[in-house]
Amino acid sequence: MSDLIQLHARPTSVAAQSIINHDFQELSKQESLLPIKVTSFYRKKIEDEIAALGHTEGPLHRVAYPSKEKLEVRVPGEVADFVDDRHNMPKDSPDIIIRKYRERILFLPTSVCAGHCQYCFRQDVLSEQHGHAASSLEDKLRLLREYLKDKNEIKEVILSGGDPMVLPLDTLRAIIHTLKDECNIESIRIHTKTICYSPNVFQNEEKLKLLSKARVRLVFHIVHPYEICEEVKQTIQRIRSYGIRCYSQFPLLRSINDHPDLLIYHLKQLDNLEIRNLTVFIPDPIYYSGAFRVNLFRLFNLIDQFNWSSPSWINSTRFALDTPIGKVRREDMKHYDHETSTAIFEREGKQVVYPDFPASLDKPGELKTLLWKDHDKQFT
């Protein structure tokens, strides 16, 4: 606790940050974590943020680079893979398909991302995939076809990973052809962070025509309003000009976006771009997630403030926790044990124990840092 107080009392300098980066790179090799990976496009935004704040604790920096908390904060109950992705992978298609719901599956055509998010919830699985020889696209599509055969109940396939939008046009075309023309899948979703890291991938007209023709739903992972610069806005407008349906979902992250005013501002920005936000996710209790997690009771209070202060077209978004039994919400919590700081959530007759983040470590982000360009504005 004293380390956290000291951290916030004395913001991390650029020189101190270089030591943290070095220590994390060494740790990533030992613990099989994703190494630091930042695009030049995103790095420029971070450099502007550091110049304005005079330290490295701004929200965009925490997205891409490790903090002292990332290295040091550990709490009881953390595991490598809380949502149990591996358990939901078919035995004959490991690392390629994840199925948690009857009518939809995740297809993982790549483990590569344009940049590495420090809060990544699939870090354990992705790190493992990076250590293996990649299967060919032909093998992946063959396994996908075999899995979908005679499973007419599956109506939707979500392309995830990794980030599918880093894939070449021909690869995306082959995947979409397999799903639409060979397997008769009704709905395809692509989840991507490239809109923030490398918006230039959407300059390929043939790629946009492909997504449009297949009626793909594009789901952006935009965690902070400062990720939506003018170039990103213009790129989104270009995408929508092709008739592509755009959505968003993102995690609630301590010291990045954990303030109701910021959330309202962020969702209004998305709405102005005609992007419908689907879900705000709560970070999983996984290893090295302590820098981003929030206590459940602060979360519930934040949700109340958010709902009371925002219009219905903003607060219609849902807050959810992903678990081994599926997504659960506040109303699904059946019991909270204050002695063990654990909550029991229930969905469709199944229960899961959720280890809460300690309130004593949950120091909220300050609005003057979270919204360093706009903290004096009124957002409600």
Please identify the top-level CATH class. Alpha Beta
Question: What is the residue-averaged pLDDT?
Answer: 93
| Strand element count | 12
Number of helices: 15
Largest sheet: 9 strands, mixed
Given the helix and strand composition, which structural class is it? Answer: alpha/beta
Overall domain count? 1
Q: State the order of secondary-structure elements, H for helix, E for strand.
A: HHHHHEEHHEHEHHEHEHEHHEEEEEH
Q: Going by CATH, what is the homologous superfamily? A: Aldolase class I
CATH architectural category: Alpha-Beta Barrel
Strand order across the largest sheet: 1-2-3-4-5-6-7-8-9
Silhouette: globular
Bin the strand percentage.
Answer: 15-25%
Helix content: 25-40%
- Which blocks of ≥5 consecutive residues have pLDDT under 50? 1-8
Write up this protein.
The chain has 380 residues and is α/β, with parallel strands linked by helices. It has helices at residues 2-9, 14-31, 40-53, 59-64, 68-72, 123-130, 137-148, 169-182, 194-197, 205-213, 230-241, 260-272, 296-309, 312-315, 367-370, and strands at 97-98, 104-107, 156-159, 187-192, 217-220, 245-251, 276-282, 318-323, 326-328, 333-337, 342-347, 350-355. The protein has one domain (2-370): Alpha-Beta Barrel (TIM Barrel), CATH 3.20.20.70. It has a 9-stranded mixed β-sheet with strand order 1-2-3-4-5-6-7-8-9, covered by helices on one side. The protein has a 3-stranded antiparallel β-sheet with strand order 10-11-12, with no helix packed on it. The chain is globular. 40% of the residues are buried.
